[in-house]
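Here is my example:
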Amino acid sequence: HFTNRRGLIEEVLTTTRTWQVNKSGMAIATDDLTERKIVSEITPELLQSDEWKDMEFKPFDVTLEAAMPRSGRSHPMQALIERIRAIFLEMGFSEIEDDYVQSAGWNMDALFIPQDHPAREMQDTFYLKEPAKMELSEELMGKWKSIHEDGGATGSTGWGGSFSFDTAQRPLLRTHTTVNTIQYLAQHPKEACRVFSVDRVFRKEAIDRTHLPEFHQIEGIIMEEGANLQMLVTTLKTFYAKMGYPEVRVRPAYFPYTEPSLEIEVKWHGKWLELGGAGIFRPEVTEPLGIESPVLAWGMGLERLAMLVLGLDDIRQLYISDLDWLRQQPLL
């Protein structure tokens, strides 16, 4: 009755073995018995001395099954990150890293996300009290202001309204890793590049089986003369093929900072699953930074990919310290 009540009954199984000398053994005369010392375990102390040379060792039956030794290994998430990193490096990309704390200007304004966009509200973004402000140059913010209000010289009409320098300088925890790639482009506007990052981002999400407030993104960009949509699609298909998912398709989508925009889907167990977004940066993003070549960009959720690779239906399993589950996971 009580076994169904968790934490009330603890069941312990024990095994007891006993031995006794049989009649044949008791019939042996004491004078015929000899005492021998047999070593059944080799210790460091034994090997450090010379006593082992004169000792008799217990024979071992090598045909018997032995317990598998428990050795340390990478967490499945870390192993997956290393696998993704190896694939991108193999494809000729270079890795970049940057800080978690960024300004709203680089995180959103630089990507042509309007300052009244719902994603900028408190329910989606972690804003910080300290530091109170992240200084940005007025020249840079002036370019963003022109782009946002009337499109500047890009031919766009912009978003209209007024652009706030104070809003652009608010500190926050980055909501995507695109904030780092756009800064890399700003620092190297004329150099062709292929870079990627696999890093953490933060959003105020309700925790459930498919959402976490802290997760990882796989980010990549290609900037070079002649870069086009076909190159972007081929790159993504090549990446997923190397990950073991040869069936990939893209479909139209909308993102404020890319045009055209795509969503990437892979076929898994007969179903199409969306894993991320991609596209070509709009002129409103690239021209204020002095970038003249096309920029292909994509961002994918690592945890969702991990769910596919590890066969999970709950993203939280990745961060639960369940040693039995961890030991059962395949080597990636």
Remarks:
- The mean pLDDT is 88.
